[in-house]
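pasting for ref. prot 1 ->
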Amino acid sequence: EDFLAPVAAGNLQSALPLAYVTKDITGTERNAETPTIGAYEFDAYTDAPVMAEGYPVISNIMDESADLKVKFNQTGIAQFVAKEATETAPTAEEVSASEITLSVYKNEAATATVGGLVKDKEYIIYSVMTGVGGKMSEVYASSKFVAGGEVIKEIPNVKVAAEATESVEAGSNAELKATVSEGTAPFAISWTNGKHEVIATANLDDFGSATSTYAPSECDLYYVTVTDTNGKTASDTCRVAVTGDAVTATFENLYLDENSFWAGPDTKGTPTEGLYGGNDINGSFVSGSYQFSNSFNDQYSSWYGFAYSNRTATDFNTITPDQYNSVVGKGYNDSENFAVAYSSGEIKVLNKPVEGDEIRGFYITNNAYAVNTIAYAKPTDYAHKFEQGDFLKVIFTGHHADGTDAKVEYYLADYRSSKAADHYYLDTWQWVDLRSLGKVTSIDISFDGSDKGGFGVNTPTYFCMDNFNGERIVAEATTQVAGGEVDLKQFFTFDDASATVSYAFADALPEELAQNVSLSADGKLSIKKNFYEKFDVTVSATQKGKIQFVKIPFDIVNGINAVDGENADSNVAARYNIGGQKLNARQRGVNIIRTTTGKMLKVGVR
């Protein structure tokens, strides 16, 4: 009501332009086509008012009141509310309901006195302004002050940004750069790796950047922490990929508190609109030579892709934290960390991202959530307990540089057999062979199962992973010196005598060897007669999802090489009969000996 400025243009924009009156009284250029009648140009104010830089300013602090000086870029009515510093900041609507008002003119400072304060208490005065066009500003907060005292000078927070060389060749140094833009100098800088181990330190006397170097052994996340002279800190992260020879992803480079897990969000992830609300933060983590995808929904705290865990519990009672439990209670070979996969996800090859690399395989076991359903689901549960005919499997789809794909399927639980003794779900760490995928740039995971509904597989689609692109454990048998037939059962130990055992060559045989060596379904390894060679084969035996590997060396000799005399034991390392059984002493007839130089001979003993 105190302002003479029009709230609408009306007929004011009907003046004739005058070439010699190009500016209004304030020095503002007049519109050359539709100048306004009058000394001042009309401004419709379609935007909300904005507080000028350097405002608001607290002054004249008394025991029960304080003054607040404001300046806005529009004319309007400002309103004010004082709150104790510990209280929640008010909304714009709450401030606009205040009876403490002040008329403010465009680009002119104005001061309001705000009362109702209590001596020695800390306060903040909040203000908003409603312009003549009806638009309301955001809420502006004053500095903190003490009634009857002084303005509390806020110590500025520290701000740092981390950058790193995106990719380095194995053995080369990566540059880690920390740029400090806020805080109070001087600054102490500390870099740690993904395990929170300090790898570099630096100092800055003022705002700017400090660069450190470090030679990473695997792809990793790096944390920079900056501490200013007031003890305030700030942190940021960056990532370095390492190219060259593959490094196994053990997940031990990833920091976890004791008995905990990480499932997102990645602080450098990209937000997209979630299918059912909220935002999906699409990110990842790295270990070894590989990147594992993670998508975290900020509204529901749900996720899919990959997480990592060091939880030791093996049971399932509640979705969180028990979805991060394995059925083993630790990583492969008693390690601490392991990955948890859920629903769908992607693994990227970072050491050879263009041409791809061969993945040997990894160790896998079941997740406690999945097993709780497979073995113990109630009739009222969403997914059913497994019975004859049921299965749950994970599908690995490898993508090649030329755009082609290859797949490997692996059963986490298999009840398809009509033989009940063969029904199983994984409850130990087992090797998954991925070599048949060939050289891949990435691998996608998906699931299939017998229990399906309108949204896909009902059985919880989880598994646990460790030592991605690691090494399988292969036992080695004693050297076989006789040809013919070898029963493989002697090399393996089985849990269930009534369950089926499947035998196979674990590695492809060279062409000549494949023509002379065969393996039957019941585990008989046959070598053709008159095939006398030094070779080895690696075979596997699988029972109820558990696989064992044995490397069997052969050194088959033919013909009598010599006559074994009474004093011929000095150069003998081992002695066998013609059937390949080890002997403790010479035995009349034909003996096979391995000399101390490793040579195999067939000799006659009188």
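and prot 2 ->
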Amino acid sequence: MTLSSQMNEASKVCRISLSERFDFHCVREFREAYEAVKDQGVKHFDVDFSKTGFIDSSALGMLVNMERYYKEFGVSIELSNCNEQVKKILLIARFDKKFDISFQ
């Protein structure tokens, strides 16, 4: 398993915890994780990068697709616990304009 997800029913927050690599091999599993909670009334996602040391362009695409999927529902998405390498990539891609990002 490359990631895990947990939905807090009370707060309607879903945390998706990524593994060391967030890349092309995670596409289906990541999409299934965020789509699975749509009918549960999710209001916020916390995508946790605390274990992630590598992301590629597929990861950026997955995050954009997630944002598009939930945009009309007003669901917020936070990219949390990003290390320096992940931070650089996200800032170069200007993801700070589209997502709330927190760094380690």
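The chain has a mean pLDDT of 96.
The CA atoms of residues 3 and 18 lie 5 Å apart.
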